[in-house]
Amino acid sequence: MKERKISRRDALSTAAKVAIGVVAAGVIAGIGGYYAGSQVAPAKTVTETKTVTAPGTTITVGAATVTEKVTETVTKTVTVTGPLTTPAVRFEGATVTVACMAGGPEGPHSSVLYYFKDEWEKLTGAKLNVIEIPFGELHEKVLTDAITGAGVYDVAKICATSLGDLVVGGYVECIDDYMKDPRFPKWDPAHVPEPVRRCVTWGGKWYGIPNDCDGIYLYYRRDLWEDSYNREEFKTKYGYELPDPPKTWDEVRDCAEFFNGWDWNGDGEPEYGLCQSLKVAAQAWFKYLAVAACYSVLPGPVVDRYHNVFHFDPETMEPRINKPGPIKGLEMLIELKKYGPEAMIGWDIGPSWDFFVTKGKAALTWDWGDIARMAQDPKRSVIKGKLGAAPLPGSYEVWDEENKTWKRFDRPIRCGNILGCDWFYVILKHSKNKEAAYHLCAWLSAPEQLFKTVTVIWGSGVDPGWRIHFPPEISEGWGLGNLKEWVTVGGYDERDAKAFLKAVYEQYFKSDTFLEYLKIPGASELMDSLDIHINEALVGKRSAKDALDACARDWERIVEERGKDQMKKWYQESIGYGLPIKIKPD
Amino acid sequence: MRKEEKVKYLFLLPSVALVLSFVIFPLIYSVFLSLTNWQIGRELSFIGLSNYLKIFTDFRVLNSLEFTLKFIALTVPIEAFLALGLALLSQKSFTGNKVFRILCILPFFASPIALSYLGITIFYEEGGPLNNILSLIGVGKIPWISNPTYAFLSVSLLDIWQWTAFLYVIFLAGLESLPKDIYEAAMVDGASGWRLFKSITLPLLLPIITTGVIFKVIESFKVFDLIYALTGGGPGISTESYTMYIYKTGLRFFRMGYAASLSLILLIILSILLMLAMIRLRRVYEV
Q: Domain range spanning residue A430?
């Protein structure tokens, strides 16, 4: 067979043609892909039908009284147009450095960034650098970076208590304009509960991109509650049915006492009524506020001097932490402590969660949404399928500071909360990659990522609360979520998921009032004082009243040192003084 | 000046620059800050000695000083006693002496913060190893972290475990440097072991013991990392040390002016202690 020889000219010519062909195909594919990705989606129409009954009017006609009631059926049609997919914005060469709470690749908040890192980097061409900082040092490290202008961090995922210091110091970027910019991923502010929105805004402007919807809920062992023996014994001892769920802290106390000190799980050791994290310089003060709020925050239509406020008198900045409501809350916490392990005083969340979820040795606790998620992990949970959840208990009496008396109600008044840090992203003023930074934060708070964050990422530390999280059947038709996906994608037990999501929804949208979040400058110092004085009361060093009186004196000093007039202004801005309170979803 | 003399100043320059940058300048700036009320979000303004006057009425300062002094009073004598005993034992000739010496020194190389986290496990009240052992021998569970008294003890135990090694090294070096002929002469005169220790070892070693104790007292005034993870200063503020309070004031609450004044007070206290100790040592050496 003859050898076929190819000349150099022919080889080069062929190679050039192939190369040009490849490049041309690539360009065409790229252009086509761009347009395909950003094509205008067809308009989406959502129809909601509601029946509205108005009270109507009552008139007297002769001897008769005529009452008119008006019933209307309202149909709302929402049409969504515009691109639904994330616009292809590239930030080649940019590096976004995010400071977040240290949790490792599978721990709270940092796990979210690690999980989505590759995807976001591929999407934008930018690089994501995660810097983990222990919880207790996050505030100071971010603030030090901002004050000194070192500029190490572009974004910080912060606790709401830090926002005041950062805004007042001029260290964070206002994101109002970014939110309107069509180049960036869209997240809907109306899909977040109002109290969470208030956490990330200051003076009517947006500074944070909401993400987490921290809140504390009541958890209990549903299997114990469903046991007929327990129900009978409880009724015999206390004279009323085992409350499912407990609706007041007195009922929680009775339940904790009932389940304390005997072997209800057959492991040969006595179990406890409850467990809690009460270590100083950790989370104890959140757990205290969760109990104290319902005795202290009087509901009303507007945030005024005596309604819907907790920490200070908004007109005088007189601390209210030592009023009868908060004192009763601390007394209740001291009482509840008797039904848990003595060691709780030295526990932060790790041992407490371990005790409830992994060891299964407590009947009750109140804690963040992490409990619901951890309970589903077959590797470390003994309570999957046994989890009961409810919004925090309320109180029949709430302290009325205006009339200096307890105001009695005919049903328990519940105070919703966003206790916890309500972690959200802020963009630091000195960042050299602000647009890339905002893109990251907004993308992480888009519905698809948000759903995965609370279901697929086990240790995310992010609690549900967005519209995308709630199935419609649990949220009176408001939610856009899917219960089946919580089970199939998230791995939840169906009953556990239903109980938990119902608790979250009721806490946010069916409470009578809300505990305001203290985020004024100096919040860290104020809460530190509360923390240590609560601890003194819990270990018996002081009575509840003495402890909170000492706290109030500290708060007065702190406010004076920081400038009372300025603190008053900031406090009023931060609580939305004078504005109507909004609980129902948009 | 000759060229050779100029060159030697060039060699001195880096050290001088370091000392000026990291010691002298921060000191002078701290003094300046302590006379102001600088906080985040506020303009810096001069307030004279107000920060220093506030210290006397700040209950947390008094509390933290009380804890720190009690901590020093408990840990330093125990560490000195244990270290001296171990050093004297190390002087004896026995099999495994070298390994024994290494084991005595090892704790000093542990990182205090790591030790503190290890302490959380060791002192874990609901099933930690220490309470498990105590339960086995009939003592029962001790509230190592949740009770103020036991929390103080927990911190002290960790400090004793780590810092005995430091004093051990100093005392052992001192013992090795003592002249042997005095001992030989005393033994010829029939002196017993206790007499040798009381009349020769202790007097000769006293300057070294004093030096070691002074160093440890100064170090104890700065105790922070052991407490930070283990108790966080709690329960309440029962284990909050002075330096922990300075840290919180400056870097948690960002009240830099007040924190600077607290730091300078600590500097003054330690300087007075050091001066008294130096006077004492000079007298001992002169004798």
A: 95-210+424-461
Q: How far is A143 from chain B (nearest CA, A)?
A: 9
Residue A263 sits in the same domain as residue A362:
yes
Name the token pair of A2.
């003859």
In CATH, the number for domain B33-286 is 1.10.3720.10
> Considering only CA atoms, which of A443, A459, A368 is closest in space to residue A98?
A443
Cβ neighbours of B259 in A, within 8 Å: none
Q: Is residue A40 part of a domain?
A: no
Among A143, A147, A281, beta carbon nearest to B234: A281
User: Does the beta-carbon distance from A532 to B146 stay under 8 Å?
Assistant: no
CA distance A314 to A303: 10
Residue among A280, A343, A561 minimizing CB distance to B234? A280
Q: How far is CA A293 from the centre of its chain?
A: 17
B266: left (phi over 0), alpha (psi -120 to 50) or beta: alpha
Please give the structure tokens belonging to residue A186: 């869209």
Q: Do A280 and B235 touch (CB under 8 A)?
A: yes
Q: Structural domain boundaries of chain B?
A: 33-286
β-partners of residue A388 are A220
- For residue A71, pLDDT over 60 is answered with no
Which among A347, A127, A140 has a CA at the least distance from the CA of B143?
A347
Helical H segments across B123-255, by residue range: 129-136, 148-176, 180-188, 193-196, 202-221, 225-230, 242-247
Q: Is residue A183 part of a domain?
A: yes
The token duo for B243 is 């330096």
- Given a cut of 80, whether residue A39 has pLDDT beyond it is no
Q: Phi, psi at residue B90, to the nearest 5°?
A: -65, -20
d(CA A108, CA A101): 7
A108-156 residue pLDDT tens: 899 999 999 999 999 999 999 999 998 878 888 999 899 888 999 999 9
Whether B236 sits inside 8 A of A532 (CB atoms) is: yes
> Are residues A283 and A245 both part of a single domain?
yes
pLDDT at B82 over 80: yes
Write the CATH number for A312.
3.40.190.10
The answer to whether the CB of A455 falls within 8 A of the CB of A493 is no
The residue among A171, A338, A525 with the most chain B CBs within 10 A of its CB, best to mutate, is: A525
- Judgement on whether residues A270 and A182 belong to the same structural domain of the protein: no
- Give the tokens for residue B144: 């190592």
Q: What is the pLDDT of residue A19?
A: 64
Is A248 found in the same domain as A134? no
* Spatial contact of A532 and A273, defined as CB atoms under 8 Å apart: no
A523-538 and A324-337 are packed helices; what angle lies between their axes, rounded to 10 degrees?
50
**What does the longest C-alpha to C-alpha distance in chain B come to?**
80
Does the interface ipTM go beyond 0.90? Answer: no
Q: Identify whether residues A198 and A316 lie together within a single domain.
A: no
- Put simply, the answer to whether B144 touches A346 (Cβ < 8 Å) is yes
Q: Could you tell me which residues come within 8 angstroms of residue A133 by beta carbon, excluding any fewer than 6 positions away? A: A99, A100, A101, A102, A141, A142
Q: Which residues of A touch B125 (CB under 8 A)?
A: 341-343, 346
* A57 occurs within a structural domain: no
Residues of B in contact with A538 (CB under 8 A): 235
Domain count, chain A: 2
DSSP B43-70: ---B-TTHHHHHHTT-HHHHHHHHHHHH
> Do residues A275 and A230 share a domain?
yes
Quote the minimal CA–CA distance from A142 to chain B in Å.
11
Size of interface A-B (CB pairs under 8 A): 101
Gap between the Cα atoms of A467 and A277, Å rounded = 30
Task: Specify if A30 maps to a domain.
Answer: no
For B152-162, the pLDDT digits (tens) are 999 999 999 99
Let me know: does A98 contact A131? Beta carbons within 8 Å.
Answer: yes
Q: What is d(CA B212, CA B76) in angstroms, rounded to the nearest whole number?
A: 10
Is A528 close to B251, i.e. CB distance below 8 A? no
